[in-house]
């Protein structure tokens, strides 16, 4: 099936097949920041030139400039420059890459337009493959930190610690920061200021369909009940609060799914599930080691390596239908990971309102 249904990579609205090849190892050396892989560049990706690639004619031939975040240069250069040399040799082009850490354009030039187009295609697929390996930097979020919700959450925490502290692994360190209660819609790896600006522009484009769904008004929500996502409530690493629209409609789900569709189509987000899981993390064992930690909210059971577990049976029994409160949701944010603004919520790189 890997051959019949290969991995598809979305690059600026163009779809490429990724050939099935042996997973390549990229090793970083203390004295050398670049990376390499075994096998030919040709084997790494399917060469599918596209007319939408902007190749311009010059006095000496043809050229194309690509905007690539500097953090990804090393994957094009390769260990001791081998990847870049191989690309240039196989496509008969010259590839000019800015110095490491300097944001700029990678310029590909050659005598033949087809050669430049081929090199561009291979570089884009290579970059996109390694972009997916970068940790996420931002995420689309619905804030749940309304004062009433925070107050009821703190009451929940107090009562859980009073009544369930004897349960294995339950203590105050695994509770969410009330000022950062949120729903994660999807995660983004925005690797420079240009990509942050592009994401903000994409979010602005979503305001029209959101206001059509909400009628240009805030969306009344209620946060009621607790759930977990694995098979054994005695071995849980995350507990979630359930969030729903007060009138019972699916408006919140539709907005979340359409936001993901918009960012996936633009190539800034990777789709993980058919539908966004609407839940707000209230307890997470990641917080025990790092109170600032965020999980990949859409992935069900994120970051499972070296995670601890706690016994949630007594919490689910006593607080399974706990009412955290009601509020009017009026914004979606591009939130910056590992950040805090003056309100205690995540620093917002951009937002749009429902009303």
How would you characterize the overall build of this protein?
It contains ten helices and 14 strands. It is of the alpha+beta class and 355 residues long. It folds into two domains: 125 residues, 2-Layer Sandwich (Ribosomal Protein S8, Chain: A, domain 1), CATH 3.30.1370; 216 residues, Cyclic phosphodiesterase (Cyclic Phosphodiesterase, Chain: A, Alpha-Beta Complex), CATH 3.90.1140. The strands form four sheets. It has a four-stranded antiparallel beta sheet with strand order 3-4-6-5, covered by helices on one side. A four-stranded antiparallel beta sheet has the order 8-7-13-14, with helices on one face. A four-stranded antiparallel beta sheet has the order 11-10-9-12. It is elongated. About 10% of the residues have low confidence. It holds the Pfam family KH_1. One of its GO terms (biological process) is DNA alkylation repair. It comes from Megalops atlanticus (Tarpon). Keywords: RNA-binding.
